[in-house]
Amino acid sequence: MPAPRxxxxxxxxxxxxxxxxxxSMADPYATEMVATAGFDWLLIDGEHAPNDxxxxxxxxxxxxxxxSLPIMRLVDDNPATIKQALDIGAQSLLIPMIESKAQAxxxxxxxxxxxxxxxxxxxxxxxxxxxxxxxxxxxxADAEICLILxxxxxxxxxxxxxxxxxxxxxxxxxxxxxxxxxMGHLGNPSAPEVLDAVTxxxxxxxxxxxxxxxxxxxxxxxxxxxxxxxxxVGVAIDVLAFVGALRTAAASYKKS
Length: 256
Ligand SMILES: O=C(O)C(=O)C[C@H](O)[C@@H](O)CO
Fold this sequence. Notes:
By secondary structure, the protein is α/β, with parallel strands linked by helices. The protein has one domain: TIM Barrel (Alpha-Beta Barrel). Helices cover 43% and strands 16% of the residues. It contains twelve helices and eight strands. The chain has helices at residues 7-13, 28-34, 53-64, 79-87, 101-110, 137-140, 154-158, 160-164, 176-182, 192-207, 219-227, 238-255; strands at residues 18-23, 41-45, 69-73, 92-95, 146-151, 171-174, 211-215, 232-237. Strands 1-2-3-4-5-6-7-8 form an eight-stranded parallel β-barrel, surrounded by seven helices. Strand 3 (69-73), helix 4 and strand 4 form a beta-alpha-beta unit. Helix 2 (28-34) packs parallel to helix 3 and helix 10 packs parallel to helix 11. The chain binds the ligand O=C(O)C(=O)C[C@H](O)[C@@H](O)CO. Ligand LXDSK4UY binds at residues 48, 150, 152, 175-178, 215. Belongs to the HpcH/HpaI aldolase family. This is 2,4-dihydroxyhept-2-enedioate aldolase. One of its GO terms (cellular component) is cytoplasm. Its cofactor is a divalent metal cation.
């Protein structure tokens, strides 16, 4: 019996446009609620949400029990963190702040077992192999890993073609907020110069035959990015939707 089929990997590779939500409340119970909303995928955010491996694990279990497909963003490209995420059963990873071909290649190798990489062998103890109940896990795991790298700086854009040429990387996600900051437009990812850079990069990613990812809660921004080819499309953030609805409710009663 092989490693589980990674539907997110294969549906993105087939060119499907899949819409998802950032999950940032760092709690399995809250994630379970978000998983009833009906998004194609849910990104469990280990970069900006206060997560550790146990909270990531509990949230992953909640998403795996739902119709939504899981992907996990880690705090950085640390191979040890990647190893832990894969061992708890994440098969799709989003890794932030990638700025060079060498960094991209090292990150890819951290997701692969020898001889194709240097992922530590220990899944027999972990959810990834269903606690050693998947006998062929070690020899089939690599093929079901979906690795999407975040390019979100001018240096990353300069290295984009080299990164896209690396076989085994499934896609590149353009981070509008961090790219805006690096371009001198801190807090304004909608600045024309930034949106042009984002959409131009998305076109290059799709032209290279890879998954092109982006996140925005602005429908017009999303439309521009989808016109440029984005197919891994983050359209909502749970924290913002949650507090936004509560603030609206509070304000409406304060008027009365
Ligand atoms: O740079 C970006 O934009 C992203 O990578 C997404 C943010 O990290 C996300 O937290 C929304 O601001």
